[in-house]
Design a protein that fits this description.
Blueprint lengths: L3 E3 L10 E5 L2 H11 L8 E5 L12 E5 L5 H9 L7 E7 H8 L9 H9 E9 L12 E8 L8 H12 L6 H4 L3 H17 L10 H11 L12 H13 L6
Length: about 250
């Protein structure tokens, strides 16, 4: 049986709907509307915060979310197992455009590349604020997210650690981004742990700054900027660091 998790949609379209709602008044109203109808057997309601709830198996997700939980909900979906087939979600317009932004676009950011690493994302339609009552202050968009199955063979925590550093100042060169004291302290700590685990002796005159700069130079990434780098660029950069024993998580 196909099971869908849904928010604010007619349930007669589906074999079964699992809805998640935090407002008990809306839950009561929903049960009132479907009781004593054939639709009642198709509906299961989870009462609570969707970000804190354990989602059941589902193959489709349709949601009109509170916009303030957009980012954590997207990554909750993308890290959900087993894989779902597709999600159709409405977001604030700017957030939606960040999801689909490409290298070189003004809105291209960490959210863009992290989402696109794990999924295919398409912008489906714009939704004007006059379609809501009362009208909100922002425009909206509907996007479709289809997770990549199987996912890329990448440790996501490692990946996100690298991407986070690169996009702190996405217009800076990578050479400049990695000269941050906080970044170098973190990477040196991780490198020393790696060496300890693998019985690698660290020279007394070791410099993490010099090691990082050499890696960037050898990979020809010194003058590159995150704003123009695609997924393949970051995969190559992550591999280059990992081969030299530098990790980001």
């Amino acid at each position: 049986m196909n099971i869908k998790i849904a928010f604010n949609i007619p349930i007669y379209y589906f074999y079964q709907v699992v809805a998640c709602e935090i407002d008990t008044r809306l839950v009561a109203e929903l049960h009132k509307r479907v009781q004593c109808t054939p639709l009642a057997s198709k509906l299961q309601v989870m009462v609570g915060d969707v970000l804190k709830s354990e989602l059941p198996f589902f193959d489709l997700c349709v949601a009109n979310l509170p916009y303030q939980i957009s980012s954590p909900f997207v990554f909750k979906l993308l890290l959900h197992r087993p894989f779902f087939r597709c999600a159709v979600l409405m977001f604030q317009r700017e957030f939606a455009m960040r999801l689909v932004a490409k290298p070189g676009d003004k809105l291209y950011c960490r959210l863009s590349i992290n989402t696109q690493l794990l999924a295919r994302v398409d912008h489906l339609m714009k939704v004007g604020k006059n379609n809501f009552r009362p009208p909100p202050k922002v425009e909206s968009s509907v996007v479709r997210i289809e997770p990549k199955n199987p996912p890329p063979p990448i440790n996501f925590q490692e990946w996100d650690g690298l991407v986070r550093i690169a996009f702190i100042r996405k217009n800076k060169t990578l050479s400049a981004a990695f000269k941050s004291n906080a970044v170098q302290l973190l990477l040196e700590k991780n490198y020393r742990i790696h060496c300890s685990l693998h019985n690698i002796e660290i020279p007394e005159n070791f410099s993490i700054a010099e090691k990082i700069e050499k890696i960037l130079t050898d990979l020809e990434f010194t003058e590159k900027r995150a704003r123009s780098m695609d997924i393949d660029d970051f995969i190559r950069l992550l591999h280059g660091f990992n081969v030299e024993g530098i990790h980001f998580s």
